[in-house]
Amino acid sequence: MNLAPLDQAAILEQARAGEPAIIARLLNYKLHPLGVDAQVTWQDRCLCVALVGEGASPAPQTCVPIIERGLKKLQVPGLSTVAIAAYQRGQTQPLWRDHLSLASTALAIDLAAWLESGTSLREAIITLPTSLGTTTLAPTMTPEVEQKYLCFQLGLENPALLPVESIQEILHMAIAHVLPVPDMPDAVLGIYNWRGEMLWVIDLNHLLNLGGLDLAALSTVTVIVLDVAGRTLGLMVQTVEEITSHLPSLLQPPTGLFSPDLEPYITGYLRETSSIVFNPEAIFNAPSLQQR
Fold it and tell me: What predicted TM-score, i.e. pTM, was given to this entire model?
């Protein structure tokens, strides 16, 4: 969805105003590649989303998180409840139903800034006031602080997460601007002139043995700039989505859940969102990159 800045602003304004056709258009940007078409209507103050599958049935574990993330980004005023029903094309009986409660969140992304190439990730984060009153805790109780993560897509069935504190910037660059370097590992694409500095760019899919991206079919790529202890590294990924917050205590150890090749790069697994949390330092220290 390559839109001019004015088109983006107009579309986002209409979507936030609750225009169902525009909301459907934004959701379908993510759903159409899955063979699913979303139709959106309002019933009272509830947003109703009908998912129609072409061929394969709409999968709730895939479609529901996409809808939830998209609507939380938009922050439509007054929208708190979403009813979802999935259908096979030509059928009248739903395959499944689900309901979402879009509780207010203390974290959001300025979508206009997010779509700008080269916008600093930290500048794109907005802390929103919550309507919750102050809770008095017992003196001995220390509330656990949520960790903020950037959600992106790799060649995995699960969403991938990286801690925001290790991310310097999100770049949308022309692949032609990455200068190849001879005798480098296959995962290393080359170097990029980033703010006057030399930034190594790697294909994260390839590094993790998940199959590299088809660069011949791409003119631009998305690169996450990692910053760990003053070292920087560019990670080329399929798509970058949103920022979410989770309690670190909810992370499940990755032992036994993933292949032995992938496990060393994983900090943990969030079962509630089926998300894999990657360890930035382990990516920096990948054995295949040590000859750089």
Answer: 0.54
